[in-house]
Amino acid sequence: MSEYILSQIRPTDRRGLRQMDALLEKEGIERDKNLDYTVGLFDEDYNLVGTGSCFGNTLRCLAVSSDHQGEGLLNQIITHLTDYQYQRGHLHLFLYTKCNTARFFGDLGFYEIARVDQKVVFMENRKNGFENYLEQLKKETKAAGYNTDHQEITGAPKKTGAVILNANPFTLGHQYLLEQAAAQCDLLHVFVVSEDVSLVPFAIRHRLVLEGSAHLANLVCHQTGPYMISGATFPSYFLKDSETVIRSHASLDIAVFTRIAQALKITGRFVGEEPFSQVTGIYNQVMAESLKEAGIHCHIIPRKADEDGVISASAVRQMIRERRILDIQNKVPESTYRYFTSPEAKSLLKRIQEAEDVVHY
What we know:
Layout: E1 5-8, H1 14-26, E2 37-42, E3 48-55, E4 58-64, H2 73-87, E5 94-97, H3 102-107, E6 111-116, E7 120-124, H4 129-143, H5 150-154, E8 160-165, H6 172-183, E9 187-192, H7 202-212, E10 219-223, H8 235-239, H9 243-264, E11 268-272, H10 278-293, E12 297-301, E13 305-306, E14 309-310, H11 313-321, H12 334-340, H13 346-354
Parallel strand pairs: 4-5, 8-9, 8-11, 9-10, 11-12
Antiparallel strand pairs: 1-2, 2-3, 3-4, 5-7, 6-7, 13-14
């Protein structure tokens, strides 16, 4: 029996990274550009026979050389990565894998959330994690005065819609999308991306969405949690990978949303058209096709524009970065402007003004 050594592969370890890339390529995997910890399993000659990585609360780039499969090596890598994640406080873990390896990860304590046939499976290490999230959404809906089974109770179909926002920050464009969607629905579910990868923290984004949509009486606001449009479910959205990768992960994200839609009786999803981002444009195309198959209508709403063109959060961030705070007044709701001109926003303004690049998701 060969002896193997587990060792971290650091960003400066060129030899280790070359071996990792070669192993991943051999196993049909491309190295994810968003990795914050990588480990390698080496034989006595320091040849890489297995590897795995983490990013946030996800496990990624997991592979064992086909020459060494059947030796339980991936089990060792998963155990090590799980321990590492627990040590840094990540107890709820996620991974996405090929369909033909999902059963193996199931044996290691991971449970399927959704899949895209022949492409990818999304999994978590909590047996009832996603089901508990769905129950939480139902409770929030009920607390707002609605019942997720209202169609059956009234005997007359009601139109229930959904919008997913990052709102980095909340602009008049976002507000317009919500107003247009709410006008076409009896109930509108608004999901705010809760993963904190944006310049504006989730707590602020969530608050500004609530304040900027307070005039809409038929709206219920939720957090996406780790399930929708996050680094776990849709890493290619942030990485700007190839169109094939974007399409497969967009399909996965829609598969997750479809389960949410079924739980909340959502019949339509509203999105703003995307004239600038190729990635978002492809995502919207895949979404329209996939939602139609699931019996959910996809409404693409033209973006709100003014004399300067389409109103975007990127443009607002750029104005803040250039210290043109007064210029954002005509681009954002009064509540958003009030926040950014208050003493409370001082540290966030500095963060945006010192950022190298603010024109992104």
